[in-house]
Amino acid sequence: MGLSSALASAMSGLRANQAALSIVSSNVANSQTPGYVAQTPNQIEVSTGDFGATAKTTGVSRDIDSYVQNQLRTETGGSGYADQMANILKQLQSVYGTPGNSGTLENALNNFTSSLQALSTSAGSSSAQRVALGAAQALATQLNVTTKGIQSLRSNVEQDLSTSSQAANAALNQIADINTKLQGLAATDPSAANLMDQRDQAINALSKYVDVRVTTDGSNQANIYTTTGIQLVGAGLASQFSFASVGALSATSLYNIDPAKSGVGALSIKLPNGSSIDVAGNNVVSSGQIAADLKLRDQTLVQAQNQVDQLAATMSSALSDKTTAGTTVSGPPAGFDIDLAGAQPGNTVNITYIDSTNTQRQITLVNVTDPTALPLQNATNANPMQIGVNFSSGMGAIASALNTALPGSHLSFSPSPASATVLRVTDDNSGLAKVTAASSSKTVSSLTSGGPQLPLFTDGGQALYTGAITGTGLQMTGLAGRIAVNTQLTADPTRLSIYNTSPVTPTGDTTRSDYLYSQLTSAVYSYSPQTGLGSASQPFTGSVSNYLQQFLSVQANASTQATQLQQGQSVVVSTLQAKFNSTSSVNLDSEMSNLIQLQNAYAANAHVMSVVQSMMNTLIQAQG
Which of 511, 461, 468, 547 is nearest to 137 (CA)? Predict the structure, then answer.
């Protein structure tokens, strides 16, 4: 190697040292900068033929563990989901209140049943009647307040969907903009490294709101998809979330895949090709805060409302509905006659029979006067199965509709010769089925019907709750927010004891108060699977008190589990962040060590140059 080659090598070494020193300086200066990834110089050997080699710096590398980074983004989405679920479910527990305390549904129901029990010990006492009436009003008010709290949470979630969509759009636009800036830049370009740091930060921010899957192509463009395959960002192009809020929500504001029927804000995503996708209807997102908001608004909190609505409906019907057993038809064929006269929309007929497999089954006939609500939908293996018919359409038409709806049941429906309002149900005389019971349940509207039933609670004042089903939904939906004490009873509290006017109920008669107390504390009812309790084939059954305690317990457990998931997810994210930081963040001790090495190398290269210069001077002098 000649002196010229030695000088060239030393000079290339100095240039490489200078580049490395610049990178070390940048690392140290940005050691506290969020999202900054430590850089190392890319240095290669360049051959100069027979005269040695020189050093060349070709750019920088980012010290990043892509696998851990992807894991961290996945778990960040899970954390965003868990945080939102735990936060809202904790607030829902505040709506219910602390068990045993005043101002809770449980306390209000207990006070009401206790007042009915006290009324039975002094049925003619006006004071006891007023106390019972006040307790009923307090229970109705507590149901109203609970509904208001649940719908307030749904409205808050609706607003958060708007805020989260805007934040996600900002991140998407930033990622697409940085993609554009990175076009034409090599991944090792120092300016590209800084842009990639910014892009990673934007992707991390996005992963809080939606689940993301990131791939990088050969031109250093980040392509981002949801785990369901919807592209969020491509080369310079970004999808955009669009949310059209409807404002405050009510119990009847429900999601429907048909935009014309939906009562909640529509969240869609517009793809770069111009097409638009309904996020909720197509399950576009499966994790992140937006996914949690959608589940809370359209499922979790709707189910919570269903639970209190079912409580209000069961209480109302338990006190006001009169169940009458069908009249036995000895046969053959054998069965029952059921009188449908006076049935109101939503009133029912219940039929129990043994089928050809010797299995007991139940059918509930529902009086549906709105043809747009038919046919009623049943879950697979629903028991009882609900069939909607218009009880006022005539026995012949009803029988024909039921025979058509129940092929293979070996049941036979026909008009009864006893009356134009009586429906007969029997077996088909094949011996393959046996009708074991039949009854009708009708809502009593009079305060003094001669029976203990009492329309104590109403739907918003005067209207009775009958369980009506229409094309726009169930009367039960939102009932807890509308339930009130019958205004006729408010005007005359004595009707809590007097159930007959001719002859007048004797003073001290406890028939009605005993009945009301029994209906709320010991009578057993079946509850809709939409409450989250039981299933279509095995619905939850129990007293009103049992049902209230059960769904409150389920909600408390759900909140506890959500909090535990939130805490566990936080630990996972923290652990992954620490693991990511251990390889990607600036280590000052390591940088100081690198600085010393560079200082020594710089001095060595400078010394080589000094020696070469001295030798060259000596050579020149010798030649002179």
Answer: 461
- CA torsion 502-508-512-514 (nearest 10°) is -160
pLDDT, tens digit (0-9, with 9 covering 90-100), for 440-470: 999 999 999 999 999 999 998 778 999 999 9
Could you write out the DSSP letters of every residue in 421-459?
TEEEEEE-SSSS-EEEEEEEEEE---TTSSSS----EEE
Q: Which of 182-196, 303-317, 409-423, 484-498 has the lowest mean pLDDT?
A: 182-196
Answer for the pair 428, 415: CB distance below 8 angstroms, yes or no. Answer: no
Residue 605 has pLDDT above 80, yes or no: no
- Residue written as token pair 């094309």: 471
Q: How many Cβ atoms are within 10 Å of 269's Cβ, its own excluded?
A: 25
pLDDT at residue 571 tops 70? yes
Q: How far is CA 303 from its chain centroid?
A: 9
pLDDT in tens, 462-471: 789 999 999 9
Cα separation, 561 vs 579, in Å, equals 27
> Cβ(514)–Cβ(181) under 8 Å?
no
Q: pLDDT category, 48, cuts 50, 70, 90?
A: low
Q: Could you write out the DSSP letters of every residue in 309-348?
A: HHHHHHHHHHHHEEEEEPEEE-SSSPEEEEE-TTPPTT-E
For the chain, what percentages of helix, strand and coil (3-state, to nearest 5) are there? 50, 20, 35
Per the CB < 8 A criterion, the answer to whether 351 and 362 are in contact is: yes
Please give the distance of CA 17 from its chain centroid, rounded to a whole number.
57
What residues have CB less than 8 Å from 208, skipping those under 6 apart? 76, 77, 79, 80, 288, 289
First and final C-alpha spacing in the chain = 23
- Of 229, 223, 233, 171, which Cα lies nearest the Cα of 202? 171
Measured at the CA of 351, the angle between CA 348 and CA 355, to 5 degrees, comes to 150
pLDDT at 49 (0 to 100): 61
Give the chain's length: 624
Residues 130-155: what's their mean pLDDT?
Answer: 97
pLDDT given at position 153: 98
Is 420:400 a contact under the CB 8 Å cutoff?
Answer: no
435 and 426 in contact (C-beta within 8 Å)?
yes
- The C-alpha atoms of residue 255 and residue 246 are separated, in whole angstroms, by 12
Residue type, 365: L
Q: How many other C-beta atoms lie within 10 A of the C-beta of residue 592?
A: 12
Is pLDDT of 56 > 70?
Answer: no
Picking from 463, 444, 466, the residue whose alpha carbon sits closest to that of residue 455 is 444
593-596: which pairs have CB atoms within 8 A and are 24 or more residues apart? 594/20, 594/24, 595/21, 595/24
**pLDDT tens profile 235-263:** 779 999 999 999 999 999 999 999 999 99
Helix crossing, 301-320 with 126-182: angle to 10°? 160
